[in-house]
Amino acid sequence: MSALEHVLIAGQWTASVDAQGSFRAADPTQAEAIGPSFPVSGAADLEAALAAASAVAVELAAVPAAQIADFLDAYAAAIDADADTLVALAHAETALPTEPRLRSVELPRASGQLRQAAKAARSHAWTDPVIDTAAGLRAHRAPLGKPVLIFGPNNFPFAFNAIAGSDFASAIAARNPVIAKAHPSHPATSQRLAQLAHQALLASGLPAAAVQMLYHFDNALGLKLAGDARLGAIGFTGSRVGGLALKVAADKAGVPIYAELSSINPVFMLPGVLAERGAALAQELFNSCMMGSGQFCTNPGIVIVPRNADGDAFVAAALKHFSEATPKVLFSQGVQQGLEQGVATLLGAGAELLAGGNAGDGAGYHYQPTLLSVDAGTFIAHAEVLQTEAFGPVSLLVRADDTAAMAALAASFEGNLTGTLYRAADGCDDDVWQAIAPALRTRVGRLIANKMPTGVAVSPAMNHGGPYPSTSHPGFTAVGMPAAIHRFTALHSYDGVPEALLPVELRDAAVAGLQRLIDGRWSDAAVGTSA
Fold first, then answer.
1. The domain that contains 221 carries what CATH number?
2. CA 205, 208, 212: angle at the middle one, nearest 5?
3. Does the active-site annotation cover 260?
4. What burial letters (b/e) apply to 24-39, b meaning 16+ CB within 10 Å?
5. Is pTM beyond 0.90 here?
6. How far apart are CA 311 and CA 256, in angstroms?
7. Which of 321, 368, 504, 528 could form a disulfide with 286 if both were Cys (CB 3.0 to 4.6 A apart)?
8. How far is it, in rounded angstroms, from Cα 261 to Cα 247?
9. Are residues 216 and 319 in the same domain?
């Protein structure tokens, strides 16, 4: 067996103490192993990482905010400077297009998130200070004082990578050590990001064990780690089955877990908008479904279409796009098998196959663009099964006879990350909107008008979250600073504590640029002033 790549534990790149095996990345276009061999860590590696992170948690929580921000900014700059290498690695391991996806969209998003986290850290914006002078109470959000374990997904090698993505940036901004569990679909990409993070960390003077990374470990060990009370929190992006298993283990130990699990992202095509521009919307749906081969948590998995002439024309136009398209490359054999199972489940529950439905020919992991259809009554009768996520270039059309049927469909959905309503520009759909939106609003994290859900802006106003089962908690977002940081914080209250012993954002003196709720009024002034 060839030598295994080193893991990042306790501030050093070191050989796995007890590797339980090895794996290599695969070229999805050929289904062939590529790159070096990486270790599957055993219990000793996990214990070493957890012990090292726990040992520096209190020290990291006490470092100046500017030092954390400097690290995040330096890491972002290193990622941008190393774009050629990173993009080449990610392309080889995921088959995602170099342009525009990796180089011009996802990599800048990753470095941009790090910079936004740095800005939030430097300004203390994530701490939400509250001061009640009459009661002698002061409170804010603070570091957990324990490590955060982050599981990265397969579909975003940069922007959600466990060692560089939004979860990572959020946990570090709140001054928590991170143990990153890379995804085995892109180990060399994760390794390179970890090397850049490690270099920036050492240069910043932060504790060397504040950032650690393991490539892979057995599911049973992952559950054991998730249930270790030495953890402060867990961030997870991936399958519902995997995330819920981790949640069971974490709940037993009282470890908060913020898991993004699955979403079908219902899209409602209202009658007037189809009459206005149905052909263009069919193209828009197809483009969105094919983006990243449909391997997005915000892929439009279900589209509600009126059963009328304009709806029929929309379906015919969409069917033409799907039927004429070539099979799309998927990340792995596991993704392909899961997609095949998902489509079979939908067909078994009463959906009709309109186009696709099979793996592509030849080498590699492929699947045909697939369009299915079902009537609203059948969907409502079998709503749980027909909301099965088909992770790939697949969409299910649901034909609705009238507004009442659309409203009933909206009320039948599980929790989702997004819900979309397409309405006509002249306002003729607004009564239909009002009939559907109230039920849909309570079932989605982000309500969207007149655009597909696949784009996720990195904005303070973004909610990349939603009701269960799209996530494990409806009150938090995985994207957008400073809100995303709140997941990895604890609420600390101080009762009668002398000012000199308080955290800086709770003292009487103003903190530049920071709004504090002082005696019921938001202010950036010092306590006791009228400004």
1. 3.40.605.10
2. 135
3. yes
4. bbbbbeeeeeebebbb
5. yes
6. 45
7. 321
8. 11
9. no
What pLDDT was estimated at residue 531? 58
Show Cβ contacts of residue 197 under 8 Å, excluding neighbours closer than 6 positions.
75, 163, 164, 211
Residue 471 DSSP one-character state: B
Helix (H) or strand (E) holding 24: strand 22-27
**What single-letter amino acid sits at 335?**
V
Residue 431: how many other CB atoms lie within 10 Å: 11
- Same domain flag for 163 and 241: yes
With beta carbons less than 8 A apart as the criterion, state whether 388 and 369 touch. Answer: no
Question: Does 353 share its domain with 237?
Answer: no
Do 244 and 362 have their domain in common?
Answer: no
Marked catalytic residue, from 5, 106, 276, 297: 297
Q: Are residues 251 and 307 in the same domain?
A: no
Alpha helix positions (H), 21-152: 43-61, 65-81, 83-94, 107-123
Q: Are residues 291 and 416 in the same domain?
A: yes
Domain assignment of residue 313, yes or no = yes
Separation of alpha carbons 266 and 465, rounded Å: 15
Residue 211 has pLDDT above 50, yes or no: yes
pLDDT confidence of 1, banded at 50, 70, 90?
Answer: very low
Instruction: Point out the catalytic residue in the list 260, 276, 389, 505.
Output: 260
- 419-465: pLDDT as tens digits: 999 999 999 999 999 999 999 999 999 999 999 999 899 999 999 99
Domain extent for 388: 267-449
CATH number at residue 350: 3.40.309.10
What are the pLDDT digits (tens) for 155-198? Answer: 999 999 999 999 999 999 999 999 999 999 999 999 999 999 99
